[in-house]
Amino acid sequence: MPFDPNDIMKDRLTDIGPPKYDTFWPPIIKENYGKWKYHEILEPGVLLHVSETGAKLYSVRVGTSRLVSVDYIREVCDIADKYCDGYLRWTTRNNIEFLVTDESKLKLLIEDLKSRGNWFPIGGTGASITSMVHTQGWVHCHTPATDASGVVKAVMDELFEYFGSHKLPAQVRIALACCLNMCGAVHCSDIAILGVHRKPPFIEHERVQNVCEIPLVVASCPTYAIKPKKVGEYKSIEINYERCMFCGNCYTMCPALPIADQDGDGIALWVGGKVSNSRVPPMFSKLAIPYLPNEPPRWPSVVKWVKKIVEVYASDARRYERVGEWINRIGWERFFEKTGIEFRHEHIDDYRLAMTTWRTTTQFKF
Ligand code: SF4
Ligand code: SF4
């Protein structure tokens, strides 16, 4: 449309921000907004939402990876056109939900999805392990201590039987963040895989003054570990290693302070977090294993320990009990005992404000 000076907003196209969400709603969602009465899980991966108007919406959830190809998206759209009047949605955990209003198409859709090999695994609902939420990893970001997609693929391949079934006591949410900036929800997941650096940044003194704003780098450090320093003829910086917590913030400001290190980088496992308010309030994840090495392409140690935690939880927890609730019931001492995870000095909270959170009781549950 040509620009109209009398109505400057007319037909205006902009790429600032996403379009308003309700412009994408399927008609049934629009018509029943605020009227949904209940939902049930008909079988693993298949949900039914019922409105007080009597309208019914079936959704079939399938797992995807976080990075998908254009060909894959075309195939997904073709399926949605065929069975769902073109409507589907992506969940926050990278699953696709095909939205079906015509009950007669539900069975056909499920059969079609199953006929496409393992491209469209159905599941991820209820007491299952749904797709893992994860971050960018070595593919895209500059401060990762590990890969993201590679670890997720290796872990989910091993836990796949739990995706399309409801055989766990409750849902198990697994997340991965490739550094402690944690773009993934590792602070509040049942099992969290966290990339950790264990060495301070390397200072490339000859580059610092050319590519970095030194005051900005000094200000970027959350622990005030950096100060300016002349090194030979170079204007550079100095890091107080006692204070450095290996966060990588300074590298974000200054590419002459690389933090990635083959020996120093690896993975920590955290357990027991949750977001939901069911039964007990939301909980933060707590440290289970402080360090596991990066072992691409299949990360066998990480896979082994995540699987072990899932299996011990599956055999020991009560129905509806999330991982954190289970651990709180049996006690952390017993968690370490049952899983065979070694208790080490890293498990002791030495944060400077930890006085307020330390467990000071003399009661142990061995
Ligand atoms: Fe980058 Fe860290 Fe986020 Fe991973 S978690 S994508 S390394 S900021
Ligand atoms: Fe400071 Fe973090 Fe850089 Fe260490 S890695 S010097 S704590 S900004």
The largest beta-sheet arranges its strands as 1-2-3-5-4
Q: What would the average pLDDT be, to the nearest integer?
A: 93
Distance N to C terminus = 74 Å
Note the total helix count. 10
Global structural class: alpha+beta
Number of strands: 12
Unreliable residue runs: none
Bound small molecules, deduplicated: iron/sulfur cluster
Rg computed from alpha carbons, rounded to a whole number of angstroms: 25 Å
Share of helix among residues? 25-40%
Percent strand equals 15-25%
Secondary-structure element sequence? HEEEHEEHEHEEHHEEHEEHHH
Main sheet: strands, sense, barrel: 5 strands, antiparallel
Provide an overview of this structure.
The protein has 366 residues and is of the alpha+beta class. Helix content is 26%, strand content 19%. It has a five-stranded antiparallel β-sheet with strand order 1-2-3-5-4, with helices on one face. A five-stranded mixed β-sheet has the order 6-7-8-11-12, covered by helices on one side. It has a two-stranded antiparallel ribbon with strand order 9-10. Helix 4 (149-159) packs across helix 8. It is globular and about 75 Å long. The model has no long low-confidence stretch (mean pLDDT 93). The structure holds iron/sulfur cluster (2 copies).
